Amino acid sequence: MSTYNFHGDISGPSNFGDHGKIEVTYGTPPAEALKLAADLVQLVRQEAARPELAVQAEIVRGELVRAGEEGRPADQGRIRQALETLTVGLAAGSGGIALAQEIGRLVGL
Question: What is the DSSP string of 61-76?
Fold first, then answer.
């Protein structure tokens, strides 16, 4: 068994995550993510020939709206799954893929 002796400030700031960047997204979802989700729904409805993709975009927007109304963090698993389905189903070069990636970044995925 080992003991670790720390001789210094262990309660100071730490740099966790990629490249020491800490992003915590609790509480109401950012207004920018909600706007992008609404744009995503509209874009997917216009571009996609598959109606299930519009359903996935609505899932993302709906989860962000509900999280904001309930004052809780958005369900990242639900959003991640819907965004992954969208990015697989949308055509390469589609603006929808860029929107999906930006929404994922904004909600901490």
Answer: HHHHHHHHHHTS---H
